[in-house]
Amino acid sequence: MTDPTASSPAPARPSGRAPDQLREVRIERGYTRHAEGSVLISFGDTRVLCTASVENRVPAFLRGKGEGWITAEYGMLPRATHTRSDREAARGKQGGRTLEIQRLIGRSLRACVDRSLLGERTITLDCDVLQADGGTRTAAITGAYVALVDAVNELIRSGEIKPKGGRTPVFGAVAAVSVGIWKGVPVLDLDYAEDSDCDTDMNVVMNDGGGFIELQGTAEGHAFRREELDAMTALAQDGIATLIGLQREALAG
Amino acid sequence: MTDPTASSPAPARPSGRAPDQLREVRIERGYTRHAEGSVLISFGDTRVLCTASVENRVPAFLRGKGEGWITAEYGMLPRATHTRSDREAARGKQGGRTLEIQRLIGRSLRACVDRSLLGERTITLDCDVLQADGGTRTAAITGAYVALVDAVNELIRSGEIKPKGGRTPVFGAVAAVSVGIWKGVPVLDLDYAEDSDCDTDMNVVMNDGGGFIELQGTAEGHAFRREELDAMTALAQDGIATLIGLQREALAG
Amino acid sequence: MTDPTASSPAPARPSGRAPDQLREVRIERGYTRHAEGSVLISFGDTRVLCTASVENRVPAFLRGKGEGWITAEYGMLPRATHTRSDREAARGKQGGRTLEIQRLIGRSLRACVDRSLLGERTITLDCDVLQADGGTRTAAITGAYVALVDAVNELIRSGEIKPKGGRTPVFGAVAAVSVGIWKGVPVLDLDYAEDSDCDTDMNVVMNDGGGFIELQGTAEGHAFRREELDAMTALAQDGIATLIGLQREALAG
Amino acid sequence: MTDPTASSPAPARPSGRAPDQLREVRIERGYTRHAEGSVLISFGDTRVLCTASVENRVPAFLRGKGEGWITAEYGMLPRATHTRSDREAARGKQGGRTLEIQRLIGRSLRACVDRSLLGERTITLDCDVLQADGGTRTAAITGAYVALVDAVNELIRSGEIKPKGGRTPVFGAVAAVSVGIWKGVPVLDLDYAEDSDCDTDMNVVMNDGGGFIELQGTAEGHAFRREELDAMTALAQDGIATLIGLQREALAG
Amino acid sequence: MTDPTASSPAPARPSGRAPDQLREVRIERGYTRHAEGSVLISFGDTRVLCTASVENRVPAFLRGKGEGWITAEYGMLPRATHTRSDREAARGKQGGRTLEIQRLIGRSLRACVDRSLLGERTITLDCDVLQADGGTRTAAITGAYVALVDAVNELIRSGEIKPKGGRTPVFGAVAAVSVGIWKGVPVLDLDYAEDSDCDTDMNVVMNDGGGFIELQGTAEGHAFRREELDAMTALAQDGIATLIGLQREALAG
Amino acid sequence: MTDPTASSPAPARPSGRAPDQLREVRIERGYTRHAEGSVLISFGDTRVLCTASVENRVPAFLRGKGEGWITAEYGMLPRATHTRSDREAARGKQGGRTLEIQRLIGRSLRACVDRSLLGERTITLDCDVLQADGGTRTAAITGAYVALVDAVNELIRSGEIKPKGGRTPVFGAVAAVSVGIWKGVPVLDLDYAEDSDCDTDMNVVMNDGGGFIELQGTAEGHAFRREELDAMTALAQDGIATLIGLQREALAG
């Protein structure tokens, strides 16, 4: 690993970005009309449509407890990718990668919700990738948070949820980004070209208090060392702070 | 049935449109980057992403015959509709309605392709509904045609397909529209509100020669009579002529 | 297309029938013993066993509304056809064609039933093809109607359903037939040999008032024109009138 | 257990038959047209359509070995029974009972076939129950044997299979019957009413040399003793000898 | 068949055992900690983990009847066998053999339980094969009986079930063994090498009163004759008496 | 978070272990007979049977490349847990948790294998949980490594694989352990009681060079901070060093 503090110049990223530079992020609220929250988020060429749907029922294990539930589903359009993938509905099952990602999104968003304030409601975050260029799961989490806030705010505005002692169901904010070691350099927000060619790939989910919600690192080429871990989490921390700012701007807009 | 030629005023459609008026149609080519053809088509609030993917293989029943294949898959994002529907990939199978629609799309587009000029290639048209407001299958067919032409033109430009005697694989054009009897009046291009409240619903697929490719009429309330059938097919004929003009403009654009 | 009114002789159909001639139709009631209605219908060599089963429950979406439900399932024995097809139960799913046909049968029969007079009961029409020679779905609809009437009459005879103001749940009659353009000639009731070799294939469902319930036309070879549509629907109208007469005779028998 | 040789009168069977009396058996060859062998067999009110289909391929584990394969599939029409059962194709899987029965049919028929004389062919016996009144699996085996012989004879007649040294693929004959202990009396060929009310139920498959191919006995009420086993197998032996005579007559007819 | 009473020496079994000799049987109670009954049973190299799980609910068809239910599930670890088999969970369904075996285990154990004394409880016997060397289903039945007794005794000890008139839910004992004709000799308790090479294979389930619960014989090579059947059932009777003794010892231990 | 270096006494773990203390680890090689490698590993009451199966074929995407493949499957016996879980084979699919774990095991072990030295072979690691008490995935990885080494050594001993330049397919060692924050204290190797009650749960996979292979941390209660991350990874590093020592001992044994 190259010491990221060393003076020798890092190799240029395929995208031309600086190691700590995010791709251009766009967050478009109200992208579709029916959902209680609907956000099209782009991390560069990665585009994910995130909708939040409110239903007045909860899974069996929560019935009668007065609590709500937050869950997520993830999908990729067959031609979101370079070559066409089979449609999971046609194959008759969701693949392991899909299930893994949607479990991650669900856990991440539950970490910023006080479900006791939600009543017996389920909010489902559907994250569908329209175009993929790396980082679809981190874009999904970041966009789904905005859709979730829109849906909850609507419940509050309409009086269906009443804040208790000023507290509303969503506390804090959650966003996610990928980091990796690319040709020895810790880099932020990998696109597909970088992701295919990196030694380590880590997805980081954090809240606006700088705490870690999820950390999933995988050595692709060689095992990564503690100082690489430190460099990657530091990059992620800065990237996520920026993303949380962008979420705030979008929600204020 | 009210005679559509009679002078008594027809009741106003919920959309405020004249009986023979299409919704606003937009056709956006190149909506996503990876597919050989990629079109976002809107019929009013109905929005369908149609991609055409080229693969150098054919289904088993065509292997070694030197012919190509055109097929379609259809999906609806879970929250494309007023209330959330189950994700078919999660339920583990495609419903009857989905299968019926994707078979219709495939048959319709095969009707304008000379598969012997395609070589042993499959072009898959994925039609994914981002937002639904009635007429998703007719929008899908109309948009998929444009995506198909883009994909075939790219094969020609790159020299992978060589026209024979000036003929290219796609001959003519195909478009589709729904018609119905709404409160006794034959109307063109039903939106969801009209579709839920009409007596008869018919989907019509035609080519640019004015021939019928598919005709699927269903009496919802009462059986429809021959003169209603005639009025509906006449409306469809005009509507499809307009749509084929819009396809041409989009492809010229 | 050959003008059907022209004097030049039409080519002989493989079956030797006149263009407007049905195959021999047999309707055998009480074919099996357990079902409330059980009809073996033959359109020539096409033989379909149609049973009507009454159950005292309705699907979830109708519970508590006091209405009944009519639904259909369709199957083909693996060796009903020239070459053996996979058994759908063994493959683990019903194919698109099967689902499409059983949806059509269900819709067609619901069109002649006042479900509010049925009480919270479901009548399931199982249509199983013992031998296939074209037109299985139209034979199924025509036979299932007879089985349905038998089942409903039994409910009335046993006092489980009481007619209101003289009205019973089944009003009118429903039958179906296929028509097509075969070597330029509009012909009625296609058998397999004709179906495989025709330009257009249309399934028509009508009631005894001469109204259309369903119309599904597909251009196999070339697009069909309005005058062909007119000729086909006229043929269907006559054929269905004959079939409804045969249903009546069978029910009177 | 009542000693079947004792003089005290046995209770009358619901069917009025003597303890060692078969139901009326009918074997109708050529019931459908497409299959290489097609037999409708009735054991009283139990009716099973057995078809034999020849295909020029074998399962993967036999490829290239020059041997053939015999396999069976079993199905029950949804309303073959007193109350409607779910359609297995709609449920998406075959139940344990179905799989168990079709494995039994397959094993039983393989016991009378020299597969090395069959060439690389698969013969599939489809046994579909049109009406059930007990004993469907034994009727299926008895009828499938006749369909199998018809299919193999056709292969011989057409010269596709050439007997070696006078030997043809099917040697001997196979038939099956159920026996049971009903109210203490060993009885032959249980119908549904007897089967539902008996203490022991045994299915026996034998060949024309009097050897056992399969023996499956289940104590429903109380465990059965060796002398009951002996009485039941003796009854079965006689019943099967009769059935094999009827198969021969049918094949000679 | 060689007369087993004749003086000419029988060929030595691959295992070196005498024709009427069981493999070494070990029954280890309390093998795992969570289940109400948990037994590791070995028949030689065949090792099956049998657990009994008590749940306070019954299947739909028994609800409200005050009776309990006994059911079984069977599985084989993918590498329990000489070559690896596909994992059924990964293939998405249980094979016919698995379903057949688990139905057999369930029926066999229900034969020694008075379900009216069980209350509305289900006891599930999970039989998972850790290592297979022939006879897995008979070992499973024999071991599951011990697990079942442990689970029921625990329900009695804890007062959840109160014996009525001194009667407890489990009456008698049930065990199972395989027998076969190997190179003309009737032999007891086939291991894999013998099973692969025998002419007839029979699984026998009996109770401690010497009655037959289940008898399933299959001719693998040639049909078996009545005197072979007699010899096999006699061998089974002795073997099962020994197994029931071993169950008793284990339960007393 | 309590500073782990602070002097105030940490609360006692339910298991009575020191914060940095592993449970008793046992590694039993050759647990079953058929597999090329077969290891029963226990982390306290968690017991996982890990088998390595060698097959002379590779998945389609590797065919003809001269490389091998390492993959894993994971299962849990239905009553490995406190209450019985549904059998995945009976439910017809593997759950998201199962797929996630088996993907993790596969990736972890591929990280210590040079697949180009393996030839076109697949080694499948089946990890089946016989008894669960927390940490099943980390026990599975640690045990599967030993089974893998046994299988590869056997391939070398038998000459099927020839080391190139002294290099053999497995380089280094891989082991895994869980760490967490339990009542504010970073603790090693969580059992079920601790896992259910902890704020953060992290699974760490490392190699014998001290590099990270996988790191998966999840905030259950509150987000974790960088210093907690550091404390957890330090604990894991020590625990894994111990585990790798135990693997070595077992392999030397």
From TrEMBL, chains A, B, C, D, E, F:
Assigned keywords, A-Z: Nucleotidyltransferase, RNA-binding, rRNA processing, Transferase, tRNA processing, tRNA-binding
CDD domains: RNase_PH_bact
Biased composition (Low complexity): 1-19
Catalytic function, reaction form: tRNA(n+1) + phosphate = tRNA(n) + a ribonucleoside 5'-diphosphate
Residues in Exoribonuclease phosphorolytic domain copies: 21-151, 173-238
Keyword Transferase (UniProt): yes
EC number assigned by the record: 2.7.7.56
SUPFAM superfamilies (UniProt xref): Ribonuclease PH domain 2-like (SSF55666), Ribosomal protein S5 domain 2-like (SSF54211)
Residues bound to phosphate: 97, 135-137
Enzymatic class: transferase
Source superkingdom: Bacteria
Gene3D superfamilies per UniProt: GHMP Kinase, N-terminal domain (3.30.230.70)
Assembly description: Homohexameric ring arranged as a trimer of dimers.
Purpose: Phosphorolytic 3'-5' exoribonuclease that plays an important role in tRNA 3'-end maturation. Removes nucleotide residues following the 3'-CCA terminus of tRNAs; can also add nucleotides to the ends of RNA molecules by using nucleoside diphosphates as substrates, but this may not be physiologically important. Probably plays a role in initiation of 16S rRNA degradation (leading to ribosome degradation) during starvation.
PANTHER family listed in its UniProt record: EXOSOME COMPLEX COMPONENT, EXOSOME COMPLEX COMPONENT RRP41
Family: Belongs to the RNase PH family.
Entry protein name: Ribonuclease PH
Organism: Marilutibacter chinensis
